[in-house]
Amino acid sequence: MNRDELLVKIFKALGHPIRFKIIKYLLDGPKCVCVLNQDIEFSQSNLSQHLRILKEAGIVESEKVGLNIHYRLADEQVKNLIHIVQNIIENKLKRYEEE
């Protein structure tokens, strides 16, 4: 897979509302999949599919802790990416308000 394909894969993974919600939960640190399952109103299998896509894109990593699986951001730069996009949106909203 070349760089452009990997870039598209990452943005595509982040582009789904459920996966974005998962990433937002993980911004402040690792979470047990059981906690994610409580906070995200979808079935365990649906959540697992979304986590798999995020993992395949290299956005999250998992670790077995006892009987539970914990997920965390694979790279702290993901936080920066989310913050940059949030800043872009805030700037865009301010411009709309000024018009």
TrEMBL record:
Lineage of the species this protein comes from: Bacteria, Bacillati, Bacillota, Clostridia, Eubacteriales
Organism whose genome encodes this protein: Caloramator mitchellensis
Swiss-Prot/TrEMBL keywords: DNA-binding, Transcription, Transcription regulation
Listed SUPFAM superfamilies: Winged helix' DNA-binding domain
Stored CDD domains: HTH_ARSR
GO MF terms held by the record: DNA binding; DNA-binding transcription factor activity
PROSITE patterns, sorted: HTH_ARSR_2
Pfam families: HTH_5
Cited InterPro entries: ArsR-like_HTH, HTH_ArsR_DNA-bd_dom, HTH_MetalResp_TranReg, WH-like_DNA-bd_sf, WH_DNA-bd_sf
Name under which the protein is recorded: HTH arsR-type domain-containing protein
PANTHER family listed in its UniProt record: TRANSCRIPTIONAL REGULATOR, ARSR FAMILY, TRANSCRIPTIONAL REPRESSOR SDPR
Positions of the HTH arsR-type domain: 1-93
